[in-house]
Amino acid sequence: MRWLFVLLCCLAGAAHAEPAGSTPHKAYLTLIIDDLGQNLPRDRRVLALPGPVTTAIMPDTPHATEFAREAHRAGKIVILHMPMDPATGPYAWHPDLPLDELEKRLDAAFKRVPYTAGINNHMGSRMTAQPVAMAWLMGELQRRHKFFVDSRTSAQTVAAQQAQKIDLASVSRDVFLDDERTEAAIYTQLQTAISLARKQGSAVMIGHPYPQTLAVLERELPKLKAQGIEWIDIKQMISVRSNRAMAGHGKDGVYR
């Protein structure tokens, strides 16, 4: 009977073992801080955050070029935070502008923000819903070897969809941290992102350099590792997601 007992133990162990070739479930988090370039002492707090924060710098800010250089020296990924309608200003994209003017403004914005690896949209609820302009932008970014982050400021956005069509390296935002500027609300949004990362494997967060946001991040980000969350940079997140849409952005990996 001893052999039967041993056999049953082996079978029980096999039933609970990981399937061959399987890997442990991972939960990845990426953080982008928008609207940088306006206030150097404030923005430097972003550079001091303990991990691979992505710095999204607006071209029409007084310290755009200087802060991009500082962020680059600090080893942070720099992206252009491109103003789009309803944003205003000399760099902003609007649906009624011809493509040559859009190109002129994009060129000027890239010159203001050096060391950019990609872009994301600032505002843009109207602009990101324009298929022709977004298709042109994604082709232009591919030509320049830059990636795109869809901030998803509108449910009507077609930006990520156009990026996916040409297999441009891109990713979409999952959680805005600070639509409500209280530490309690920001903490709740951070926990929402953590829960989402555990559920779907990854989550992309966007926040702003508000004092309340930075206070929560300074306090909570060092705790991520102990919670089983891996904080990765935006380029790694693009690789993890392999240009596939999450459930909140599309169906079966395809952006809708």
Short description, anyone?
This protein is an alpha/beta fold. It has one domain: TIM Barrel. The protein has helices spanning 2-16, 40-47, 64-73, 99-112, 131-143, 159-165, 183-200, 211-220, 234-241, and strands at 28-36, 54-57, 77-84, 116-123, 147-150, 170-172, 175-176, 202-207, 230-231, 250-251, 254-255.
Task: Give an account of the 3D structure.
The chain is of the alpha/beta class and 256 residues long. The protein has one domain (25-245): Glycoside hydrolase/deacetylase (TIM Barrel). The chain contains 9 helices and 11 strands. The strands form 2 sheets. Strands 1, 2, 3, 4, 5, 6, 7, 8 and 9 form a 9-stranded parallel sheet that branches. A two-stranded antiparallel ribbon has the order 10-11. The chain is globular and about 50 Å long. The chain starts with a helix and ends with a strand. The relative contact order is 0.16. Mean pLDDT is 91; it is low at 1-24.
Strand elements, count: 11
Mean pLDDT across all residues, rounded? 91
Main pleated-sheet profile:
9 strands, parallel
End-to-end CA span: 61 Å
Could you give the order of the helices and strands? HEHEHEHEHEHEEHEHEHEE
Radius of gyration: 21 Å
CATH topology: TIM Barrel
- The percentage of residues in β strands lies in 15-25%
Structural class: alpha/beta
Shape by Cα distribution? globular
CATH architecture label name: Alpha-Beta Barrel
Q: If helices are DSSP runs of H or I spanning 4 or more residues, what is the number of helices?
A: 9
Uncertain stretches of 5 or more adjacent residues: 1-24
| Oligomeric category | single chain
So what's the CATH class?
A: Alpha Beta
Helix content: 40-55%
Structural domain count: 1
CATH superfamily: Glycoside hydrolase/deacetylase
